[in-house]
Design brief:
- This protein has 164 residues and is an alpha+beta fold.
- It folds into two domains: 60 residues; 77 residues, Glutaredoxin.
- It contains seven helices and four strands; from the N terminus they run ααααβααβββα.
- A four-stranded mixed beta sheet has the order 2-1-3-4, with helices on one face.
- A hairpin with a 2-residue loop joins strand 3 and strand 4.
- Keywords: 2Fe-2S, Iron, Iron-sulfur, Metal-binding.
- This is NAD(P)-dependent iron-only hydrogenase diaphorase component iron-sulfur protein.
């Protein structure tokens, strides 16, 4: 993959902005309010794009770099939206030795995105995980709550086609 980064354009609504501003104004005076505000912002928008981080920065008078640092440090925060279908490929040891890395690479090729990204149409997002507790079915991937086990690279395209 090249460095051509694809993303879903930010489409925040006036209602979302109003909800975020309400949370900020409610919590701004409390010690340690940044994390709860960021958590609420992610609940409102589903992720923390730069536009949302900038709103928080402007309202709290906190440098954007600090907000970005918090957002990238804690795994609970997502900088990219999640797709309607969230694909997670296990790269834990049992799955990896049975070929999950190749499955992950095949998904990146087919979807035209890298891990952590969402397809421009908002349909699929792709992430790696460490273990889903289904080592006996290795290699494993999940799409939302559905588990696919004993996969081969050749299975991937047909599985994605079910979600059209």
């Amino acid at each position: 993959m090249g460095s051509k980064k694809q993303s879903v354009p930010f489409t925040g609504t006036a209602e979302q902005k109003e909800a975020l501003l309400s949370v900020i104004h409610e919590l701004r005076g409390e010690r340690g309010s940044l994390m709860p505000i960021m958590q609420k912002a992610q609940e409102i928008y589903g992720y923390l794009p730069i536009e949302v981080q900038t709103m928080i920065s402007d309202e709290l008078h906190v440098p954007l770099e600090k907000i970005y640092g918090v957002a990238t440090f804690y795994s609970q925060f997502a900088l990219n939206p999640k797709g309607r279908y969230q694909i997670s490929v296990c790269l834990g040891t049992a799955c990896y030795v049975k070929g999950s890395g190749d499955i992950y690479n095949k998904l990146m090729d087919l979807l035209g995105i890298v891990g952590g990204e969402c397809t421009p149409d908002g349909k699929f997002s792709l992430d790696a995980c460490r273990c889903v507790g289904a080592c006996g079915l290795a290699p494993v991937m999940m799409i939302n709550d559905e588990v696919y086990g004993r996969l081969s690279v050749d299975d991937v395209e047909a599985i994605l086609a079910k979600y059209d």
